[in-house]
Amino acid sequence: MQRQLPGQITLTAAYIGNTGVHIPSFMSPTTDMPPQYLPLGNQCYTPAGNLLSCSDPSGPTPLLFEPLTFGPAQAVLNTLNQPVDPATGNRSPFPGFQALYASNSINLQLGKALSIRPQYNTLTRGYEGLGVSTYHALQLKAEKRFSNGLTMLLSYAWSKNLTTGGSIFSVFGSQFGAVDTWNEYLVKSYGFNDMPQLASFSYVYDLPVGLGRHFLNHPGVVNQIIGGWKVSGVQQYQSGQPESIEDPRGDEALEEVGNGGYNTPNQLLGVPMKTAAKASGHFDPAVDFEFNEAAFTYAPKFGFGTLTSTEAQVRAFGYFDEDFSILKDWRIHESWVLNFHIDAINAFNRVQFVQYQEQGGYDAEPAIGGPSASGFGSLSDQPNPPRTIQLGMRLKW
User: Fold this and answer.
1) Residue 42 structural domain
2) Are strands 150-163 and 131-147 parallel, antiparallel or unpaired?
3) Quick one: which of 69, 81, 209, 290 has the most CB atoms within 10 Å?
4) Left (φ > 0), alpha (ψ -120 to 50) or beta: where does 55 sit?
């Protein structure tokens, strides 16, 4: 919808809806073990086949990592009606399974036998193209054409972006793979570039002083000094990006059975994720933390965290920036113009605090485990430049 308003102002309102398909992703199980067998990792047995606590100090082997020939492992396979290999007399995914991996004891474990494609040692589907995304936005724009010495453009967007494409790599999102390739709910989350509110304001104003203008409309030395100045500015304000909260333990057990991805913690429902300092708006990065660690627990052994890969309940700090310029042109000759300008970049010296940044400029993932241990929720870096004021002169002929 578009309307013409008084003062040479045009107001535009629009709804934008966008759906993406076949986006590069990493969320299709390849040689993974179906998650219904993960609880077998919490079962441990004595060599004689008697059930044992997996927390025993002797460090018993979880059943998933026991050899396929182990008695309790064969009992599990019996429930799957696996065929009997004539060469060994053991139940296995297919005849010749044990012979195929005779030199690889890891692939002869129960977890490998329970995988969906046990005939492959490893299988990778890079850029598989199964990702999807949705984007919805309300966009407003007010534009004033040049009149009375002023031209300006004001734009605002209120939006939401969800995607499963962030699972592919960490360049545009900080997760490394899908949380759970069997559960799209945990894979689909806020896009790393999701900023629900974004506003920008740009303008140029000819000050009404000097020859041909409202005040001091006459030539002379005074006009050369104080007449003909312009003021311009670009101001930007945007919400913070969602955070990718990590469980730093990295369940190597899941990786051994092909189910390892980006590790997220469990979220305790009803417990606020942001600290009181972050919620109050009076945040001191020297002493305060963004995240309430009491809202998270480690993901269970042989299990996935309940948190999606990017969370928006606690966002990074927003980006605010104001740039201003004051400029004036002197016509020295018919074809010679001398331009003088003063530019103030980040004029109010806004500081955007983030966690420390890794090599390459990408933010590190906040990791649970205690601020003193991992920096969880602490801020120690500034990606935006500090205030800069520069003076310049240019001769055009």
Assistant:
1) 35-113
2) antiparallel
3) 290
4) alpha
